[in-house]
Design a protein that fits this description.
Blueprint: H1 9-22, E1 28-33, H2 41-52, E2 78-81, H3 89-94, E3 100-108, H4 111-116, H5 125-148, H6 157-162, E4 189-196, H7 199-219, H8 232-250, H9 258-263, H10 269-288, E5 291-292, E6 297-298
Parallel strand pairs: 1-2, 1-3, 3-4
Antiparallel strand pairs: 5-6
Helix pairs in contact: 1-7, 2-7, 8-10
Amino acid sequence: METNPRHNLPVLLALSDIWNDAFLGAPARLVTPFTEAFHGFPAFAAALEAQACTKGQHAASGGGSNCGASSRISCSSVVIDGGLENVYDRALFQSSEVVNTELVMTMDSQLNFNVSRTIGSTKNMDNIYATQDALMCSLFAQADELAFGRDSNKNNTVLLDNNPIFAALPQTESNIDEYDERSDGNRPSVLLICGKLDAFACGQLVALSEHRAAVKAHICNLDPFVREVGSTPRRSRTDQLKEGLEKLFLTAGEEDDEEEAKEDGRMNLSTKTILSHYANVTRNHRTYGWYNGKTGKNSH
């Protein structure tokens, strides 16, 4: 609330998300943790923004600010789990659809501290450090590849010369390797890097996500604190189908009369067909192997 917007991370990230949605046509955000400790963060961010930023009606009557053509539906709230170290490389680098990428990492993974407390494991410290170094390099390699791309030509010398990241590097075979695949580059990405992985940093990351979602909702004139989560229609239809399924259990294998068919008109034909098959398949199990609660014994 008090930090200048120029240095306010939730505000800057929210504006970045809306920019990617409204002007770059990239409403989805692929969140990729580069450390196992953050593997649950994408699911948290997805659930948070799905509830805070996806409201069909504006908070105030008469509409409000527009966040792109699909603002009434998404407001940049589509968050996808990229998996550890990312499993969507081809879609990210070569797809015609631009996906906004967010990479999450910590400088100090604290693995060395945990391993050092284990008796006889000090000999594996070099492997721990090597793994952390590889992950850090992989993080920046992905960000640079998304930003600058790479040509599919076998001779990449010109591309490297024009690339500010690689221009200062000596032109050796290691950085002018032959690549069979190309990446277009010019794709947005955000790097979230914390210094030390501890409870305080995790709390900051949670607060950052919550404030980010609230700012986006405010800009798109949405109420992020509504109690209704948008699942009332699904719950109502579920209750209807449960009633219909109960009837199917009782009448499995029998032909429907006209009145029952009219009552089941709320159930579409494909759903009724599959649920009827489900009732037929499971009916015998429930008839001959049900649990008698009064006697406490299985009845057959």
